[in-house]
Specification:
Strand content: 35-45%
Structural class: alpha+beta
Radius of gyration: 21 Å
Order of helices and strands: HEEEEEEEEHEEEEEEEH
Oligomer: single chain
Strand order of the largest sheet: 4-1-7-12
Length: 210
């Protein structure tokens, strides 16, 4: 009898520790996708995103012939990527000077690592390090991340369907506000820029248009 009581109590404790989370689920493809999360069947239209409520903890995803477990942590917000397609994140630096990332990458990364440890404890606040990534026929050097994780932590300022503004307002010295265009390096060493999330197809189109 004690074992039964203990099992019930343990189950209540585990359930009580879980939190309900609103997550985004994206279909970056041009086809309808069908998939299951735990015991619920879902369909998602091409190039569309829905929100869905899930408890934190482990869940099961089934899509096509593949089945896998994924974890929703208690902290943070997340995008679910059932197709495991690639997404790109770009940290956009607003400033007044151009900077050759390929030449200065070691210097910039060293400074950013230092200030990440001192000033930016939360993952959402961490500055990107300069990296080299590939996107189809392009090879890029800059503040980029590339991921096809099933669960992607929301660290962006501008989501898939949000446009990046050409300028932002920035307070200097507490009161003075200036317009900073997308150009380069004014606060590059210790202050994070704005992060944009792209589907792979949108990112390639952006590169093609430039």
């Amino acid at each position: 009898m004690k074992k039964v009581y203990f099992s019930i109590l343990l189950g209540l404790i585990i359930t009580g520790c879980k939190e309900q989370k609103i997550i985004s689920i994206d279909n970056p493809t041009e086809q309808i996708i069908s998939f299951e999360i735990d015991d619920l069947s879902l369909k998602l239209n091409p190039l569309s995103t829905i929100t869905y409520e899930l408890s934190s903890g482990t869940h099961k995803l089934r899509i096509s012939s593949e089945e896998l477990d994924f974890e929703i942590p208690k902290e943070g917000e997340y995008l679910l990527n059932p197709t495991k397609n690639y997404y790109f994140l770009e940290e956009i630096i607003y400033g007044r000077e151009n900077w050759d990332y390929s030449v200065e990458s070691e210097k910039i990364n060293k400074a950013r690592k230092k200030f990440n440890n001192i000033l930016h404890e939360d993952i959402e606040d961490k500055m990107f390090l300069i990296d080299t990534i590939s996107a189809e026929n392009y090879k890029l050097i800059g503040f980029y991340k590339k991921t096809n994780d099933v669960v992607i932590r929301d660290i962006w300022d501008y989501g898939i369907n949000q446009k990046v503004p050409g300028k932002i307002k920035k307070a200097i010295g507490g009161e003075n506000v200036i317009d900073l265009p997308i150009m380069g390096q004014l606060f590059i060493m210790k202050e994070k820029g704005k992060v944009k999330l792209y589907r792979s197809s949108d990112f390639i189109k952006k590169l093609d248009d430039n």
